[in-house]
Amino acid sequence: MASIKPSLAKGTRDFTPVEMEKRNHIYNTLKTIFKKYGYSEIQTPSFENLSTLTGKYGDEGDKLIFKILNSGDYLSKAPEKLLEEKNSVALISSISEKALRYDLTVPFARYVVMHQNEISLPFKRFQIQPVWRADRPQRGRYREFYQCDVDVVGSDSLLNEAEFILIYHEALTKLGLKDFNIKLNNRKILSGIAEVVGKPELIVDMTVAIDKLDKIGLDGVNKELLERGFTEADLSALQPIIELRGTNLEKLASLKQVLAGSTIGLKGINEIETVFEYLRKLGQAQLLENEVELDITLARGLNYYTGCIFEVKTNEVQMGSIGGGGRYDDLTGMFGLKDLTGVGVSFGADRIFDVLEELNLFPPSNAERTKVLIVNFDTALEEFTLPLLYQLRQAGIAAELYPAAVKLKKQMSYADSKQIPYVLLIGDEEVSSGQLSLKNMDSGEQEKLNVAALIAKLS
Amino acid sequence: MASIKPSLAKGTRDFTPVEMEKRNHIYNTLKTIFKKYGYSEIQTPSFENLSTLTGKYGDEGDKLIFKILNSGDYLSKAPEKLLEEKNSVALISSISEKALRYDLTVPFARYVVMHQNEISLPFKRFQIQPVWRADRPQRGRYREFYQCDVDVVGSDSLLNEAEFILIYHEALTKLGLKDFNIKLNNRKILSGIAEVVGKPELIVDMTVAIDKLDKIGLDGVNKELLERGFTEADLSALQPIIELRGTNLEKLASLKQVLAGSTIGLKGINEIETVFEYLRKLGQAQLLENEVELDITLARGLNYYTGCIFEVKTNEVQMGSIGGGGRYDDLTGMFGLKDLTGVGVSFGADRIFDVLEELNLFPPSNAERTKVLIVNFDTALEEFTLPLLYQLRQAGIAAELYPAAVKLKKQMSYADSKQIPYVLLIGDEEVSSGQLSLKNMDSGEQEKLNVAALIAKLS
Fold first, then answer.
1. What residues does the Aminoacyl-transfer RNA synthetases class-II family profile domain cover (chains A, B) (predicted)?
2. Which of B44, B88, B385 to mutate to test the interface with A (most CBs of A within 10 A)?
3. pTM, to two decimals
């Protein structure tokens, strides 16, 4: 076969051993916490029937779904007319019946519906798997990336929302982050505001404008609101909302006045208060002072969230949100199972990776790599080094014998490049004395040890 | 959007929490052992450029590669002629430039070539990821399945081969298997036999026929060999090979006589002897008595293996091979990096799963699930139960409070279906006495404990 110069498909990445160690550090930290809160892992297939995915992500989303070409003579049933017209869009359903997972939420909804007779509600699951999107790749945006989702369906208790705040707090703290905000909003509050000003269709415009308060000041925001279709009368109704400041409790008090006439708005405020109350009962009221922040400009996922909305940002590094989520009252309706409420959050593993890297928060080394390399001075010594190698591994120590008696320099550079912390130098003298020379690759120090002491030291 | 009845794409599977626990048990066992032998994890993208994959798996393999349709107006550059002809095969390269990973070996070769300046040889890696094949699904055969590969490139030492035998032995033993065979052959021995009888093109026919010795007897094998193109003269030359019996050492002795005139054949025998010698030095000679078996009918991967060939079979369950591999002298040549030798083995995780299931070898329970459910009798009790819930989790205990005060029966059936081992029953009496009722879901026994004793018991 002809030799070709290999390359990666656009927007995809290899993960080297060092990167995998770091990624596993993130995944394992998250998994441990998810399990502690009663969430169980599931996995769904990488591809789904195309009909399962289309129509769930909007027209733009549909375009970004990777379709898989049917196997065999895929054109045999394709309508001649569409081929003649070169009608790419209309032809898809004739030549492709499968597509790569675009997110973890729709496959999860399918899972719940298909397994409804075997699962016990509330069903609490987490899922850490790659998803694929035909986006234009750019710095920090890939066509294959991992999502870490944790969701519960079948429980309307706001304890779930409070626990997601704790999960975010515990996970990010455990990963070493010190200054981050878990922003909270409620779709019903936004609906209430829309009701009060009578402009439901302008909710997104409103939140976009208000969000700029720090940058463009009050006059700027008012000007932008007018440009976006609000009237002077709307503006005066909106003033307490635009200037919403202070502690979470102060904000709630102001909102209550503004939304006094809106049943749904008050319901939203009550939901937020209940979440805060759960945090207090859990002994975590201190999170409300700084870390958790009521932010009514948070309009993430407005199309599908029906209750609380979450978004997490770090203040230590310039970076978009590193997590988010919310409650959707009808997750599984798209597959015919009505009235099953769900709430969930997601961790942006790739962004968290970048944040930890920038802040140098990855542990300096962990259990994932070889602990000791036995230098191979002479294959004749293998009668001694191989039983030792076996003994080390029996003791659970990750160990290697360099597989050939090449120059010492080459063997040391192998240990260096694999960041192996210890090297064992065993020559004739060591064999006869039983005192082995162990070199610490970090400090350069060397010490003599017998086998028992060596195993104790490396264990 | 219209509601549709959801289904899985053909040949794919969901993994439930219970299945994920079991799969993770297998993966974690393998990973721990791979690392102990100095192998590091890497991952490669799910899709590769189509040109990276085509031509590597033979014509049949190429047909089984899942191709991904180009995004956007994918027909715009498609030749009209091919569309008119409905030429599915020729059109592929115009409308698809990416394809799903078919195995882990070709992406690994690509990885090595692309990262050659940053990796230090020998490069020892393992990789556990799904692969996709457009096979016709059937019992035990899926279109998405996991491969667990462990390979080293850049070392021709036969110590690597010996260590793979130990890795198989240790991994399968650790998973609970008691009776399995690690079969070993060497491509050079097969080449030697072909040289001796002068029929290199009939090697596969020969091994297929000889493999039937137990079923059809010596006369049957001889008859089949004649049908497959061997002559009476070939048969007499082949008799010692057909009737090869006895211990591994006896087999080697017979082969040495038959292959005395073949340089390559003797080289193959020498390689096997060296592997056995390494096992002896490692203190594992006893594996040669029963578990490791020289089997010259083993012709797996004859197209690409150049040295040792491995295959693993369990004798406890009716099942095809649960692992295999071998040495390939020119792994990366397909991508222009010549003369880099590699050797590796693979574990069939899906088949191992089925074997462990059939033999009931999965651990009865492990750390992956919720340890205790606090029953929710009355939301008024949450002032007591929520701080307790927080305290349990702080102690690292996976715990849940049922999120609503529904009927006890429903809460108990939730605990049952999640196989939660303990349930905490906390009513007014327990709150005032501080003595909590803990029910063992398995035995039905109930005991009274204070918080400290509870945490000690569940930790």
1. 1-364
2. B88
3. 0.93
Torsion of CA B220, B226, B231, B237, to 10 degrees: -30
Query: pLDDT tens across B237-290, in order?
Result: 888 888 888 999 999 999 999 999 999 999 999 999 999 999 999 999 999 999
CA B107 centroid distance within chain: 16
Q: Which two tokens stand for residue A74?
A: 């895929």
Tokens of A189: 């509050």
Q: Give dist(CA B324, CA B64) in Å, integer.
A: 21
Residues of chain A contacting residue B370, judged by C-beta atoms under 8 Å apart: 35, 38
C-alpha to C-alpha distance for A337 and A115, rounded to whole angstroms: 11
* Confidence check on the interface: ipTM exceeds 0.90, yes or no: yes
Interface touch A403/B335, C-beta < 8 Å: no
A42 to each of A216, A277, B158, B340, how far by Cα in Å? Answer: 46, 31, 40, 39
Contact B47 A144 (CB under 8 A): yes
| Parallel, antiparallel or unpaired: strands B40-41 and A436-440 | unpaired
For A27, counting Cβ atoms within 10 Å of its Cβ (0-12 exposed, 13-18 middle, 19+ buried), the class is middle
Q: Which two tokens stand for residue A149?
A: 């989702």
Cβ–Cβ gap B398/A37 under 8 Å:
yes
3-state secondary structure of B40: strand
User: What DSSP letter does each residue of B285-349 carry, written as one string?
Assistant: GGGGGTTEEE-TT--TTTTT--SEEEEEEESSS--S-SEEEEEETTTTGGGT--S--EEEEEE-H
Q: Which amino acid is at A156?
A: D
Closest by CA position to A328, among listed A121, A146, A160, A206 = A160
Domains of chain B by range and CATH? 17-66+102-358 (3.30.930.10), 372-458 (3.40.50.800)
Contact B38 A67 (CB under 8 A): no
Under 8 Å CB pairs connecting chains A and B tally to: 313
Cβ–Cβ of A393/B368 closer than 8 Å? Answer: no
Contact yes or no for B323/B350 (Cβ under 8 A): no
DSSP state of A307: S
β partners of residue A345: A150, A325
| Alpha-carbon span B153 to B331, nearest angstrom | 8
For the stretch B250-262, pLDDT in tens is 999 999 999 999 9
CB contact under 8 A, A386 and B282: yes
Nearest in space to B182 (alpha carbons), one of B204, B163, B208: B163
Strand pairing category for A308-314 and A180-186: antiparallel
| Chain centre to alpha carbon of residue B111 | 20
Q: Which of A40, A151, A160 best tests the B interface by mutation, with the highest count of B CBs <10 A?
A: A40
How many Å lie between the alpha carbon of B214 and the closest alpha carbon of chain A? Answer: 37
Q: What is the least distance, in Å, from the CA of A386 to any CA of chain B?
A: 5
Cα-Cα-Cα-Cα dihedral sign, residues B361, B363, B368, B374: positive
